[in-house]
Amino acid sequence: MSETENSFFTIKWDNDEVVLLDQRKLPDFEVYERYNSVQAVADAIKTMVVRGAPAIGVTAAYGVALAAIEFKGSVHDIIAACDVLGATRPTAVNLFWSIDRMKKVVIASDGEFEAVLKEAHAIFEEDIAACKKMGAIGAAHFKDGFTVLTHCNAGALATAGWGTALGVIRSAVAEGKNIKVIADETRPRLQGANLTAWELSKEGIDVTVISDNAAASLMRLKKIDAVVVGADRIAANGDTCNKIGTYSVALAANAAGIPFYVAAPLSTIDIDCATGDDIPIEYREDEEVTHIHGVRILPEGVKVLNPAFDVTPGKYITAIFTEAGEISGNYIEGFKNLCRK
Ligand code: MRU
Description:
By secondary structure, the chain is α/β, with parallel strands linked by helices. It is 40% helix and 17% strand.
Protein backbone atom coordinates (compact mmCIF):
# COMPACT_ATOMS: atom_id res chain seq x y z
CA MET A 1 0.00 0.00 0.00
CA SER A 2 1.33 3.42 -0.77
CA GLU A 3 2.47 5.55 2.11
CA THR A 4 -0.52 7.82 1.71
CA GLU A 5 -2.83 4.93 2.63
CA ASN A 6 -0.94 3.08 5.30
CA SER A 7 1.53 3.60 8.07
CA PHE A 8 4.26 1.69 6.22
CA PHE A 9 5.67 1.61 2.74
CA THR A 10 7.56 -1.09 0.86
CA ILE A 11 9.57 0.96 -1.65
CA LYS A 12 10.11 4.71 -1.94
CA TRP A 13 12.29 6.99 -4.07
CA ASP A 14 13.51 9.73 -1.77
CA ASN A 15 16.15 12.39 -2.36
CA ASP A 16 17.89 10.42 -5.12
CA GLU A 17 18.01 7.22 -3.07
CA VAL A 18 15.88 4.08 -2.86
CA VAL A 19 14.35 3.41 0.53
CA LEU A 20 13.26 -0.17 1.30
CA LEU A 21 11.48 -1.69 4.26
CA ASP A 22 13.75 -4.56 5.35
CA GLN A 23 11.23 -7.42 5.18
CA ARG A 24 13.70 -9.86 6.74
CA LYS A 25 13.25 -8.06 10.06
CA LEU A 26 9.45 -8.21 10.12
CA PRO A 27 7.34 -8.71 12.15
CA ASP A 28 9.54 -7.65 15.05
CA PHE A 29 11.23 -4.56 13.61
CA GLU A 30 10.02 -2.06 11.01
CA VAL A 31 13.38 -0.87 9.66
CA TYR A 32 13.89 1.22 6.52
CA GLU A 33 17.28 1.22 4.76
CA ARG A 34 18.55 3.66 2.14
CA TYR A 35 20.31 2.48 -1.04
CA ASN A 36 22.36 4.65 -3.38
CA SER A 37 24.08 2.18 -5.73
CA VAL A 38 22.92 -0.43 -8.21
CA GLN A 39 24.96 -3.14 -6.56
CA ALA A 40 23.37 -2.40 -3.17
CA VAL A 41 19.88 -2.59 -4.71
CA ALA A 42 20.76 -5.85 -6.47
CA ASP A 43 22.00 -7.29 -3.17
CA ALA A 44 18.76 -6.18 -1.46
CA ILE A 45 16.71 -8.08 -4.05
CA LYS A 46 18.91 -11.17 -3.86
CA THR A 47 18.92 -11.30 -0.07
CA MET A 48 15.17 -10.62 0.11
CA VAL A 49 15.19 -7.29 1.88
CA VAL A 50 12.48 -6.73 -0.72
CA ARG A 51 10.62 -9.63 -2.29
CA GLY A 52 7.41 -10.44 -4.14
CA ALA A 53 7.24 -10.33 -7.95
CA PRO A 54 5.86 -6.80 -8.55
CA ALA A 55 7.94 -5.31 -5.71
CA ILE A 56 11.22 -6.57 -7.12
CA GLY A 57 10.23 -5.25 -10.55
CA VAL A 58 9.55 -1.78 -9.12
CA THR A 59 12.74 -1.85 -7.02
CA ALA A 60 14.83 -2.80 -10.06
CA ALA A 61 13.29 0.10 -12.01
CA TYR A 62 14.49 2.48 -9.29
CA GLY A 63 17.83 0.65 -9.35
CA VAL A 64 18.15 1.66 -13.01
CA ALA A 65 17.43 5.28 -12.01
CA LEU A 66 20.26 5.02 -9.47
CA ALA A 67 22.50 3.70 -12.26
CA ALA A 68 21.71 6.77 -14.36
CA ILE A 69 23.14 8.90 -11.52
CA GLU A 70 26.00 6.56 -10.68
CA PHE A 71 27.20 6.17 -14.26
CA LYS A 72 26.52 9.80 -15.23
CA GLY A 73 24.25 8.93 -18.12
CA SER A 74 26.58 6.44 -19.85
CA VAL A 75 24.12 4.22 -21.74
CA HIS A 76 26.65 1.40 -21.95
CA ASP A 77 27.21 1.36 -18.17
CA ILE A 78 23.53 1.74 -17.30
CA ILE A 79 22.63 -1.20 -19.55
CA ALA A 80 25.40 -3.24 -17.88
CA ALA A 81 23.86 -2.30 -14.52
CA CYS A 82 20.49 -3.62 -15.76
CA ASP A 83 22.15 -6.99 -16.23
CA VAL A 84 23.41 -6.91 -12.62
CA LEU A 85 19.83 -6.31 -11.45
CA GLY A 86 18.55 -9.10 -13.73
CA ALA A 87 21.00 -11.62 -12.27
CA THR A 88 19.44 -11.45 -8.79
CA ARG A 89 16.43 -13.78 -8.90
CA PRO A 90 15.36 -15.93 -11.87
CA THR A 91 11.68 -16.77 -11.44
CA ALA A 92 9.52 -13.64 -11.11
CA VAL A 93 9.12 -12.31 -14.64
CA ASN A 94 8.13 -8.83 -13.40
CA LEU A 95 11.83 -8.23 -12.75
CA PHE A 96 12.75 -8.82 -16.40
CA TRP A 97 9.64 -7.05 -17.69
CA SER A 98 10.57 -3.96 -15.68
CA ILE A 99 14.25 -4.03 -16.67
CA ASP A 100 13.35 -4.39 -20.37
CA ARG A 101 11.01 -1.43 -20.08
CA MET A 102 13.69 0.64 -18.35
CA LYS A 103 16.35 -0.33 -20.92
CA LYS A 104 14.15 1.02 -23.73
CA VAL A 105 13.92 4.40 -21.98
CA VAL A 106 17.64 4.43 -21.18
CA ILE A 107 18.40 3.96 -24.89
CA ALA A 108 15.70 6.33 -26.17
CA SER A 109 16.70 9.12 -23.75
CA ASP A 110 20.45 8.57 -24.13
CA GLY A 111 20.69 7.80 -20.42
CA GLU A 112 18.96 10.99 -19.25
CA PHE A 113 18.29 10.67 -15.51
CA GLU A 114 14.96 12.57 -15.50
CA ALA A 115 13.50 10.35 -18.24
CA VAL A 116 14.70 7.18 -16.52
CA LEU A 117 13.33 8.23 -13.13
CA LYS A 118 10.01 9.22 -14.70
CA GLU A 119 9.65 5.71 -16.14
CA ALA A 120 10.47 4.12 -12.77
CA HIS A 121 7.82 6.30 -11.09
CA ALA A 122 5.35 5.24 -13.82
CA ILE A 123 6.04 1.55 -13.12
CA PHE A 124 5.47 2.22 -9.39
CA GLU A 125 2.17 4.08 -9.92
CA GLU A 126 0.88 1.63 -12.53
CA ASP A 127 1.48 -1.26 -10.15
CA ILE A 128 -0.72 0.27 -7.46
CA ALA A 129 -3.43 1.08 -10.01
CA ALA A 130 -3.28 -2.48 -11.41
CA CYS A 131 -3.60 -3.98 -7.92
CA LYS A 132 -6.67 -1.87 -7.19
CA LYS A 133 -8.33 -2.83 -10.47
CA MET A 134 -7.73 -6.56 -10.06
CA GLY A 135 -8.75 -6.21 -6.43
CA ALA A 136 -12.17 -4.88 -7.41
CA ILE A 137 -12.57 -7.57 -10.08
CA GLY A 138 -11.65 -10.37 -7.68
CA ALA A 139 -13.65 -9.01 -4.75
CA ALA A 140 -16.86 -9.61 -6.70
CA HIS A 141 -16.26 -13.34 -6.12
CA PHE A 142 -16.06 -13.02 -2.32
CA LYS A 143 -19.35 -13.02 -0.46
CA ASP A 144 -19.90 -11.32 2.87
CA GLY A 145 -18.80 -13.77 5.58
CA PHE A 146 -16.27 -15.66 3.43
CA THR A 147 -13.17 -17.25 4.94
CA VAL A 148 -10.36 -16.99 2.38
CA LEU A 149 -7.06 -18.87 2.44
CA THR A 150 -3.88 -17.36 1.02
CA HIS A 151 -0.32 -18.63 0.66
CA CYS A 152 2.95 -16.70 1.01
CA ASN A 153 2.63 -12.89 0.94
CA ALA A 154 1.05 -11.23 -2.07
CA GLY A 155 0.20 -8.03 -0.28
CA ALA A 156 1.33 -4.42 -0.09
CA LEU A 157 4.71 -5.78 0.95
CA ALA A 158 5.02 -7.71 -2.32
CA THR A 159 3.99 -4.81 -4.58
CA ALA A 160 4.25 -1.03 -4.76
CA GLY A 161 1.05 -1.02 -2.69
CA TRP A 162 -2.37 -2.60 -2.05
CA GLY A 163 -1.28 -6.08 -3.14
CA THR A 164 -2.51 -8.69 -5.61
CA ALA A 165 -4.08 -11.57 -3.65
CA LEU A 166 -4.29 -9.45 -0.49
CA GLY A 167 -5.49 -6.58 -2.68
CA VAL A 168 -8.54 -8.68 -3.58
CA ILE A 169 -9.16 -9.25 0.12
CA ARG A 170 -8.60 -5.54 0.91
CA SER A 171 -11.03 -4.56 -1.84
CA ALA A 172 -13.68 -6.94 -0.50
CA VAL A 173 -13.21 -5.55 3.03
CA ALA A 174 -13.33 -1.98 1.66
CA GLU A 175 -16.70 -2.86 0.09
CA GLY A 176 -17.95 -3.59 3.62
CA LYS A 177 -17.77 -7.37 3.45
CA ASN A 178 -16.80 -9.32 6.52
CA ILE A 179 -13.85 -11.43 5.31
CA LYS A 180 -11.72 -13.69 7.47
CA VAL A 181 -8.27 -14.65 6.21
CA ILE A 182 -6.42 -17.90 6.81
CA ALA A 183 -2.71 -17.43 6.08
CA ASP A 184 -0.48 -20.43 5.47
CA GLU A 185 2.71 -19.88 7.44
CA THR A 186 4.65 -20.68 4.20
CA ARG A 187 7.80 -22.58 5.11
CA PRO A 188 10.66 -22.31 4.61
CA ARG A 189 10.86 -18.49 4.78
CA LEU A 190 7.56 -17.97 6.60
CA GLN A 191 6.24 -15.12 4.45
CA GLY A 192 2.69 -15.96 5.59
CA ALA A 193 3.48 -15.98 9.30
CA ASN A 194 5.90 -13.05 9.24
CA LEU A 195 4.55 -10.78 6.51
CA THR A 196 0.91 -11.53 5.65
CA ALA A 197 -0.04 -11.74 9.32
CA TRP A 198 1.85 -8.47 9.98
CA GLU A 199 0.31 -6.39 7.25
CA LEU A 200 -3.26 -7.67 7.65
CA SER A 201 -3.33 -7.40 11.42
CA LYS A 202 -1.80 -3.91 11.19
CA GLU A 203 -4.80 -3.00 9.09
CA GLY A 204 -7.37 -4.67 11.31
CA ILE A 205 -8.24 -7.45 8.86
CA ASP A 206 -9.10 -10.69 10.64
CA VAL A 207 -6.19 -13.10 10.06
CA THR A 208 -5.43 -16.55 11.44
CA VAL A 209 -2.13 -18.29 10.69
CA ILE A 210 -2.04 -22.06 10.16
CA SER A 211 0.82 -24.44 9.54
CA ASP A 212 1.02 -25.32 5.85
CA ASN A 213 0.06 -28.88 6.74
CA ALA A 214 -3.34 -27.81 8.07
CA ALA A 215 -4.62 -26.27 4.82
CA ALA A 216 -5.93 -29.40 3.05
CA SER A 217 -7.74 -30.65 6.11
CA LEU A 218 -9.44 -27.29 6.75
CA MET A 219 -10.61 -27.27 3.13
CA ARG A 220 -12.00 -30.80 3.40
CA LEU A 221 -13.86 -29.72 6.53
CA LYS A 222 -15.38 -26.80 4.55
CA LYS A 223 -13.87 -24.20 6.85
CA ILE A 224 -12.54 -22.28 3.83
CA ASP A 225 -14.74 -20.74 1.12
CA ALA A 226 -12.10 -19.70 -1.44
CA VAL A 227 -8.36 -19.53 -2.03
CA VAL A 228 -6.56 -16.54 -3.56
CA VAL A 229 -2.82 -16.39 -4.26
CA GLY A 230 -0.43 -14.20 -6.22
CA ALA A 231 1.95 -15.30 -8.97
CA ASP A 232 5.58 -14.92 -9.98
CA ARG A 233 5.15 -15.94 -13.60
CA ILE A 234 2.14 -17.16 -15.57
CA ALA A 235 2.73 -19.16 -18.76
CA ALA A 236 0.70 -18.62 -21.93
CA ASN A 237 -1.50 -21.63 -21.12
CA GLY A 238 -2.36 -20.38 -17.62
CA ASP A 239 0.11 -22.58 -15.73
CA THR A 240 1.02 -20.43 -12.74
CA CYS A 241 4.28 -20.31 -10.86
CA ASN A 242 4.08 -19.08 -7.27
CA LYS A 243 5.63 -19.75 -3.89
CA ILE A 244 6.46 -23.38 -3.15
CA GLY A 245 3.40 -25.09 -1.66
CA THR A 246 0.89 -23.28 -3.88
CA TYR A 247 0.44 -26.39 -6.03
CA SER A 248 -0.49 -28.51 -2.98
CA VAL A 249 -3.02 -25.85 -1.96
CA ALA A 250 -4.53 -25.88 -5.46
CA LEU A 251 -4.84 -29.68 -5.47
CA ALA A 252 -6.50 -29.65 -2.07
CA ALA A 253 -8.89 -26.86 -3.12
CA ASN A 254 -9.86 -28.77 -6.26
CA ALA A 255 -10.40 -31.98 -4.29
CA ALA A 256 -12.62 -30.10 -1.84
CA GLY A 257 -14.54 -28.23 -4.57
CA ILE A 258 -13.31 -24.82 -3.38
CA PRO A 259 -12.51 -22.08 -5.93
CA PHE A 260 -8.80 -21.42 -6.39
CA TYR A 261 -8.08 -17.91 -7.71
CA VAL A 262 -4.86 -16.23 -8.86
CA ALA A 263 -4.47 -12.43 -8.81
CA ALA A 264 -1.62 -10.95 -10.85
CA PRO A 265 -0.88 -7.95 -13.07
CA LEU A 266 -0.38 -8.41 -16.81
CA SER A 267 3.35 -7.88 -16.18
CA THR A 268 3.38 -11.34 -14.54
CA ILE A 269 2.16 -13.07 -17.72
CA ASP A 270 4.99 -14.43 -19.83
CA ILE A 271 3.63 -15.48 -23.21
CA ASP A 272 7.15 -16.55 -24.18
CA CYS A 273 6.71 -19.46 -21.76
CA ALA A 274 4.32 -21.83 -23.54
CA THR A 275 3.73 -23.89 -20.38
CA GLY A 276 4.82 -23.96 -16.77
CA ASP A 277 7.64 -26.33 -17.69
CA ASP A 278 9.42 -23.40 -19.36
CA ILE A 279 9.50 -21.32 -16.16
CA PRO A 280 12.91 -21.27 -14.40
CA ILE A 281 12.54 -22.29 -10.76
CA GLU A 282 14.84 -20.69 -8.21
CA TYR A 283 16.51 -23.03 -5.74
CA ARG A 284 17.63 -21.22 -2.61
CA GLU A 285 20.23 -21.99 0.04
CA ASP A 286 19.89 -25.04 2.30
CA GLU A 287 19.94 -22.88 5.40
CA GLU A 288 16.36 -21.77 4.78
CA VAL A 289 15.34 -25.39 5.47
CA THR A 290 17.98 -26.46 7.96
CA HIS A 291 17.40 -23.48 10.26
CA ILE A 292 14.52 -21.43 11.62
CA HIS A 293 15.57 -17.98 12.82
CA GLY A 294 19.18 -19.15 13.14
CA VAL A 295 18.36 -22.32 15.09
CA ARG A 296 19.31 -25.62 13.39
CA ILE A 297 16.38 -28.05 13.20
CA LEU A 298 18.03 -30.83 11.10
CA PRO A 299 20.86 -33.19 11.94
CA GLU A 300 24.22 -31.92 10.63
CA GLY A 301 25.08 -33.19 7.16
CA VAL A 302 21.56 -34.18 6.05
CA LYS A 303 20.83 -33.30 2.41
CA VAL A 304 18.27 -30.62 1.59
CA LEU A 305 16.26 -29.61 -1.48
CA ASN A 306 14.89 -26.09 -1.44
CA PRO A 307 12.90 -25.08 -4.53
CA ALA A 308 11.43 -21.62 -3.86
CA PHE A 309 8.53 -21.92 -6.32
CA ASP A 310 6.22 -24.46 -7.91
CA VAL A 311 3.85 -24.54 -10.86
CA THR A 312 0.09 -25.02 -10.60
CA PRO A 313 -1.37 -26.26 -13.91
CA GLY A 314 -4.00 -23.92 -15.35
CA LYS A 315 -6.66 -26.64 -15.13
CA TYR A 316 -6.69 -26.26 -11.34
CA ILE A 317 -7.21 -22.49 -11.46
CA THR A 318 -10.81 -21.28 -11.28
CA ALA A 319 -9.94 -17.81 -12.61
CA ILE A 320 -7.03 -15.41 -12.96
CA PHE A 321 -7.74 -11.77 -11.99
CA THR A 322 -5.73 -9.08 -13.80
CA GLU A 323 -6.14 -5.31 -14.10
CA ALA A 324 -7.65 -5.82 -17.55
CA GLY A 325 -10.27 -8.37 -16.50
CA GLU A 326 -10.58 -11.96 -15.33
CA ILE A 327 -9.91 -15.07 -17.36
CA SER A 328 -10.95 -18.66 -16.88
CA GLY A 329 -11.07 -21.80 -18.97
CA ASN A 330 -9.07 -21.24 -22.13
CA TYR A 331 -6.16 -19.13 -20.90
CA ILE A 332 -4.39 -19.03 -24.27
CA GLU A 333 -7.42 -17.32 -25.85
CA GLY A 334 -8.13 -15.29 -22.71
CA PHE A 335 -4.67 -13.75 -22.59
CA LYS A 336 -4.79 -12.96 -26.30
CA ASN A 337 -8.09 -11.13 -25.81
CA LEU A 338 -6.81 -9.20 -22.78
CA CYS A 339 -3.68 -8.12 -24.61
CA ARG A 340 -5.83 -6.89 -27.51
CA LYS A 341 -7.84 -4.59 -25.16
O1 MRU B 1 10.23 -15.62 -2.64
P1 MRU B 1 9.24 -14.49 -2.59
O2 MRU B 1 8.86 -14.07 -1.21
O3 MRU B 1 9.68 -13.33 -3.46
O4 MRU B 1 7.95 -15.10 -3.27
C1 MRU B 1 6.81 -14.29 -3.42
C2 MRU B 1 5.63 -15.02 -3.95
O5 MRU B 1 5.70 -16.18 -4.27
C3 MRU B 1 4.39 -14.21 -4.14
O6 MRU B 1 3.26 -15.01 -3.94
C4 MRU B 1 4.36 -13.66 -5.56
O7 MRU B 1 5.56 -12.98 -5.84
C5 MRU B 1 3.22 -12.76 -5.81
S1 MRU B 1 3.45 -11.23 -4.99
C6 MRU B 1 2.21 -10.16 -5.41
